[in-house]
Amino acid sequence: MAFINVNNNESIESALRRFKRKVISEEIIKDLKKHAHFIPPGQKAKLKSVNARKRNRRRFRQQRPMGNNSPRPGYNSGR
Predict the structure, then answer these.
(1) DSSP assignment of 12-77
(2) Are the C-beta atoms of residues 1 and 31 closer than 8 Å to each other?
(3) What is the pLDDT along the chain (79 residues), one digit of tens a residue?
(4) pTM metric for this prediction
(5) 79 vs 74: CA distance, rounded Å
């Protein structure tokens, strides 16, 4: 649970801004969405593997140099 103390000379807008930042940093909304409905164990495992594939794809895309114009191995360009 996110708590903030509002100071005497602090405006409501700045206190609300601090509260929103704290909620985001504690990932309260993400956790609420995750537990919003029941996910069967089989579907949960599928989601886990799909997210792992996405994460690995992003990681390898960042590692690979972008200026590489050589053809991929096993790729026939003109035949």
Answers:
(1) HHHHHHHHHHHHHHTTHHHHHHHTSS---HHHHHHHHHHHHHHHHHHHHHHHS-TT--SPPTT--S
(2) no
(3) 888 999 999 999 999 999 999 999 999 998 998 889 999 999 999 999 999 999 999 888 887 766 656 566 666 655 5
(4) 0.49
(5) 12
Cα separations (Å) of 38 from 25, 29, 47, 52, 76? 25, 17, 13, 21, 47
**Radius of gyration (Cα) for the chain, nearest Å?**
23
Q: At which residue do the structure tokens 């504690």 appear?
A: 26
Structure tokens at 16: 């609300």
